[in-house]
Each structure stands twice: as structure tokens, then as C-alpha cells.
Amino acid sequence: MPTDRTDPEPLTPYQYPNPPEALPEIVIPNAIPTDERLWVPQAENVWFRPLCLNASQGYWMNLLRVRKSGVLSRHRHPQAVHGFVLKGRWKYLEHDWWAEEGGYVFEPPGETHTLYVPEDVQEMITYFQVNGVMYYTDPYGKGMGYEDVFTKIDMCRKHFEEVGLGSDYVKQFIR
């Protein structure tokens, strides 16, 4: 990129096409939806709202909504996870810190933790980027199941079909 040129028209958009292989962007005006059908059930009183299901790179980004207190899940991540708390609060039983509204959490690869929502929280919503897999375990590390981007896509496909949006509704989130 030349550094000796100045842009005479800074508000002029880029004038060339993007690469033909580039995937389309995803724009979701109301990420926290008012239409309850967009929340995919994951467990009793637990839902997720898909934002990006990246099958080509093996990650997903979603909102996790919990409307109950107690232990949600115990799981391990072989890759990093990023979270941003939009509403409520939660913690991992293995740590003394709390993830609270407006807070960011980085979960390093290899960590196993138990997500807990306290009794005084009516609703928790956290934006998560999960890379790779969530490997569910018992307290001693014995495998109990897993989720990855492909199981998330399947869950969405089935749910959206059941609520009348059609199984193809999930395609807008897949890259």
C-alpha cells in the first residue's frame, strides 16, 4: 500500500469488488431477539441464540441465556473461548472470580470448569465465542458428551423446523 498518497475523498467507499471467494458478512440488527423462536433450547431453562456457526473453521458465536440457578455444565475446552456478559452474572466453581454484566472472560485452552449461575440471578445472557469443542465431563474428567459447531447446526436446524421457521433458517448463520 503506498504511503505517499493522501485520500482526497475520505468518505468515498472502496471502489473495487471484494474477492469472489469471500463469504458474505452476517449482520444481525437485534442480536438479543424479542422473537422467542430464535432461542434454541439447549437444556431445561437454557437456550442459545446463534450468531455465527463457522463450519469451515470449527467455531461458533452465540448468546447463551440461562433462566435458572445452579450448575449449568462441567466441560473442557481444547481451544480458547471468549465471553462477554451482557446480563446477570455467573462463575466457574473452580475459580474465585465472578463474570458480571459488562465483564469479559478469556478461557484458556485445556481448562475444565463448572459453570454456575447463583440464585439471585433471574436471567443471565453471555456472548460466547467457542473454538473447537465443548467436552462435557464428570467431576473426575470422565467424558459425558460433547458439542461442536456441527452439533450446534443440527440443534438449530431441528429447532427452527419445529417452531415454523424452516430447517433452512439456520443457513444464514453458517460460514
UniProtKB/TrEMBL annotation:
The lineage of its organism: Bacteria, Pseudomonadati, Pseudomonadota, Betaproteobacteria, Burkholderiales. It comes from the Bacteria. Keywords: Dioxygenase, Oxidoreductase. The keyword Oxidoreductase applies. Gene3D superfamilies: Jelly Rolls. The keyword Oxidoreductase applies. Residues 32-121 form the ChrR-like cupin domain. Residues 1-20 are annotated as: Disordered. Pfam families: Cupin_7. One of its GO terms (molecular function) is dioxygenase activity. This is 2,4'-dihydroxyacetophenone dioxygenase family protein.
